[in-house]
Structures are given as C-alpha cells and as structure tokens.
Write a structure and sequence with these properties.
10 strands; alpha/beta; 6-stranded mixed sheet; transmembrane; ABC transporter ATP-binding protein; 21 helices; 2 domains; nucleotide-binding; ABC transporter transmembrane region fold; ABC-type oligopeptide transporter activity; Rossmann fold
C-alpha cells in the first residue's frame, strides 16, 4: 500500500474512532424516522377512503394512526438529532486533530516546500466540504436510500405496474449522474486548488500592507487580487453549473414520474382496479422515490468530490520517505558543528552558499557578519535542517545532519529569529510555550532578555494579542529571546535577533548572551560594535554566499580586508547619526 493510500485510510479511520456506536444509533433511528415519513402516504389513502365511503370509524382510525405517527416521529427525530450531532462533533474534532498533528510532525524543510495556503484551505474550504459532502453526505445518502427502497416496497404493495414505470422514469437523473459525476469530482478538486492559491495571495498581500500603502500600489495590487478572484469564482461557477445540471435532471424526472402515475392511475380507475385514494397514495409515495433519486445523484457526486479532497489532504500530510529514514538521535554536542564544502542553490540559479568550510567548536562564540543577501540567514537555516538539497556535509560531532532525527536536533539547538511569532495568549505562555519550567529558570531567562520592566508593568498574565499586536517590536523580540534562553540548549543560534531593539537594549542582550558559559553561540548580527565584536572567539565575514574572511576582531582589522571596510563604514554611520 502506498503512503498516500495508507494516509487516506488513516484519515477515514478518524471519523469512526470511538464513534461507531453514535453512527450505528444514528442509522437505526434514521430508518424509523423514514418509516414514519413514508407512512404519511397510507394516512392519505385511509383518510380519502373514509371520505369516499363516508365511514366515520375509518376516519377516526386514520386520525389515531396519524397521531401515533407524529408522536413516534417527534421522539425519534429528537434521538436522531442527538446521536447525529454527537457523531459529527466527534468525527470532525478527531479528524482535525489528526490532520493538524501530522502537520506539526513535518520537518521545517518539508513544511517550507509546501504552500501554507494549502493548509489554510484544508482547514477552511476543504474541511467545510468534507463535513457537508462526506460526513453529513453519508448520513443523507443512507437516509434517501432507505427512503427509496421503503417507498418502492410500499408502492409495489399498492400497484406493481405503476412501480415499474416509476423506476423507469428515474433512470434520467441516474444517467446524467454517470455522465457528469467524474467531471464534478475534477471541478471540486480544481476549486480546492484555486482556493489555496487565493488564500496564499490574500496572506501575502495583507503581510505586505505597509509596502503597498507606502508605494501607493493599491490599484496594481487590486488588479492582482481581481485576476485571482475572477479565476477562483469562475472555477466555482463551473462546479455549480455541473451540479445544477444534475439537479435539473432530477426535477425533470420528478415531473415525468408524476405524469406516469396520473396517466396510469386514471386508466386503472376506469378499469376499476384502483381507487382515487390509491392513486393519491402513489403520488405521495412518488415523492419518496423521486426526491431520493434527485438528491442521491447530487449527494453521491459530491461525496466523490469530497473523497478527492480527503485524498488530496492525505497526500499533503503524508510523511515523506526521506523524513522517515532519519533514525539517528542526538542528545548532546561533545565537539561542535562542522561544515565541509557546503553548497546550496535553488535549481539552476547561482549558489546561495558557496563551498563553506567551518568548524564551530563547543562552548565558543561566533559572529556572522556581511552585507544583505550574503547568505548569513541561509547558513543558520541550513544548520537547523531547513534545506535538504545542499551539497557537502553538515556534521553535529560526527553525525551528518541529513541522517539526524530533527526532533532530537531541536533538543540541543535553539534559535532566536528576527521575525517573532507570538500566540494570542499571556506573556508567560508565550515564553514557556505552554510548558512547565522551574520558577528560578524563568526569572533568569526573563532577566537576561530584559523583560523585567515589562512584566513588572503589565504582569506575566498580560495578553500579547494576535501576532503580538499588544506589544512593541522590541517587547516581542525580548519574549522570543527569553523563550529561547529558557530551554538552555547547548547550541544557541541567533539570526538578527536584536535588530528591532533599541541600541542600549540590543547591546545589553547580546552582551549577556556572550557571557553565558558552556554553550556554543552562533550569532548573525548587523551591529558592528567593537566592544562586542572583541568578545567573539571568531568572526565569519560572508560575501556572495562564501566566507570571505574569518578570525578574531584584531586579526581581521589588521588584515585590512572586507571586514575592516564594513566596520569602518558602520562606525562612520554611527558617528553621523
């Protein structure tokens, strides 16, 4: 069985897990509710017969019969509501939890290769379709199938010839369904793909809102939005057209069946083999035959389309083979990190990292400096397992990165990034990431990150807001730093982590991190302050994806090379400001 097929089956299992009894009761109660519905046709026959025969006792019997049916219908409809909603709740909550858990298990590189719009679409548009067309659709299909067969049996009891003719009239929507069913599945999947692209675009445009406004590019961006919006809505229109065509076929079938019943009914009445009550009963029963056919055509086609969405989702969340083979676990760094002739590039483009050779020894501190686009951040991401298509070797002690289980890697390596992610939760929860830590460790991390004043002012239970909207950029960054320091990993990576802090706070944070003993610190920085740079054991100077120079501050300044030029330019800039 392929990975996608196995994952598809696992997805379907989530709907039934600890949920079979709710589903069973839903279906059993559904059958009783259907029988009470169909019994309305017999009530009509009884009441019309009592009128034709002017039989009061038959009239009262029919009224008592209907009263009993109404009571039964009310009781079992209430039970149906209870068991069906319980089934839907558990099925959806388990399914969503399973999917999200699988997404969280993806590696950074694997997640990076996917469009986040796919995941957002899966949890919005696709999940709504799966709920309506698969879960609710399955129950509806069962309901209409039972209704169809019970109504057929009831009509056959009244008149077999009319029943056979009615079945012939029902072939119209069935034929249309066979013709258009596969097309609907394809259009549903295309709609899902276009929706994912649309969500990606919306996310990008909103993230770039400041740039859009500052460059006065509203009209150009609106044109981009309009183009993708039109494509999505056109795809949805095509899907609706196909679905509506099948509904029209069902309506035509209903009209044909009614005409057949009335024509044959009149003939049989003239022959004396049927009564008016029986004809009216057949007309009512025909509703329980044509309506299921009409609905089943659409329901089955939509169910197939939703299965396609589940299959698509299973393919997105399945574990890639190259991720499954990473069996090597690490729990400490004894010697350090070694990069041997490391290269990285996108497809046929230029090298982003160009034959990097470097040894980061345990317990030492390293600064990575260089101009924009020189490969500094890329090098940090590479050491975190962000890329898989690199050349050369990246070794933690003597273990190659590509063979290391990334969950174990993150037990020994932590990273502070420039772009901070915060939950819409308290300061404390954002620091601890909802885990329990010793209070003394918490206080130490908060102190090192310069968060004491913020917590003293607002309290650790202060809500950070969506994406940290209630905090300044510097406050968010301090939380990110405290979060990382709290883990006390043997390797600490920092990627322009102090960029959004004021000079005094940035200096304080970087200086305190450099004073932490026993850990390896690799820090990407744009702040070329001499007093700090002198504290690094080694400074890597990057240019065009390669290490242009390496050494301590004094060595690099004496060399009078690229680093010296960068430092003097930065110093002049500070003096002017």
């Amino acid at each position: 069985m392929s990975g996608s097929s196995q994952e598809f089956n696992n997805c379907l299992k989530q709907f039934r897990l600890h949920n079979r009894m709710n589903l069973f009761m839903t279906l059993v109660v559904q059958v009783i509710v259907v029988i009470t519905n169909v019994s309305l046709a017999f009530f009509i026959m009884m009441i019309v017969n009592s009128m034709e025969q002017k039989n009061q006792s038959l009239f009262f019997c029919s009224m008592l019969f209907m009263l009993l049916v109404v009571v039964i219908y009310f009781l079992f409809s209430t039970l149906l509501k209870y068991f069906k909603n319980l089934y839907m709740k558990r099925a959806l909550s388990q399914f969503k939890k399973y999917v999200f858990e699988k997404i969280l298990k993806k590696s950074i590189s694997e997640f990076n290769n996917e469009f986040s719009g796919k995941f957002i679409s899966a949890f919005t548009n696709d999940l709504n379709s799966i709920e309506m067309n698969y879960l609710n659709g399955n129950i509806a299909i069962f309901n209409y199938a039972v209704m169809f067969f019970i109504a057929i049996l009831a009509m056959a009891y009244v008149n077999l010839v009319i029943t056979l003719c009615v079945l012939f009239g029902c072939l119209i929507p069935v034929a249309v369904s066979l013709i258009l069913g596969k097309k609907l599945v394809a259009k549903e999947r295309k709609t899902s793909d276009e929706n994912a692209t649309f969500v990606d675009q919306i996310k990008d445009l909103l993230n770039g809102f400041l740039e859009i406004k500052s460059f006065k590019a509203e009209n150009e961006v609106l044109a981009l939005f309009g183009e993708q919006n039109f494509t999505l809505e056109e795809t949805k229109r095509e899907r609706r057209d196909t679905n509506d065509t099948m509904l029209i076929a069902g309506q035509i079938s209903s009209l044909v069946v009614i005409i057949i019943i009335f024509i044959l009914g009149i003939i049989f009445i003239f022959k004396g083999t049927m009564t008016i009550a029986s004809v009216l009963g057949c007309v009512q029963l025909s509703n329980y035959i044509t309506d299921p056919i009409k609905q089943l055509v659409s329901l089955i086609s939509n169910k197939k389309a939703s299965i396609g969405l589940i299959s698509k989702l299973a393919d997105i969340i399945k574990e890639r083979v190259n991720q499954a083979v990473k069996e090597i676990h690490i729990n400490e760094i004894k010697r350090g990190i070694t990069l041997k002739d490391v290269t990285l590039k996108y497809e046929e483009g230029p090298y982003i990292l160009n034959h990097i050779n470097m040894v980061f020894s345990k317990g030492k501190s390293y600064a990575i400096v260089g101009g924009s686009g020189s490969g500094k951040s890329t090098l940090i991401k590479l050491m975190l397992g962000y890329f898989e298509n690199y050349g050369g070797k990246v070794e933690y002690d003597d273990k190659e990165l590509s063979t290391i289980n990334l969950d174990s890697l993150y037990d020994v390596v932590s990273v502070i990034q420039q772009n901070v992610f915060l939950f819409d939760k308290s300061i404390k929860n954002n620091i601890t990431m909802f885990k329990e830590f010793d209070e003394e460790k918490m206080e130490h991390a908060i102190s090192l990150a310069g968060l004491k004043n913020l917590i003293a002012k607002k309290g650790e239970d202060y809500n950070c807001g969506e994406s940290g909207s209630n905090l300044s950029g510097g406050e968010k960054q301090r939380i990110s730093i405290a979060r990382c320091l709290l883990r006390e990993t043997p390797v600490l990576l920092m990627d322009e982590a102090t960029a959004s802090l004021d000079n005094a706070t940035a200096y304080l944070v970087e200086n305190q991190i450099l004073q932490i003993e026993g850990i390896t610190r690799i820090i990407v920085t744009h702040r070329l302050e001499e007093s700090l740079l002198r504290k690094y054991d080694e400074i890597l100077v990057m240019r065009d994806g390669r290490i242009e120079e390496a050494g301590n501050f004094e060595k690099l300044m004496k060399a009078g090379g690229y680093f010296s030029a960068l430092f003097l330019v930065a110093k002049e800039g500070c003096c002017e400001s």
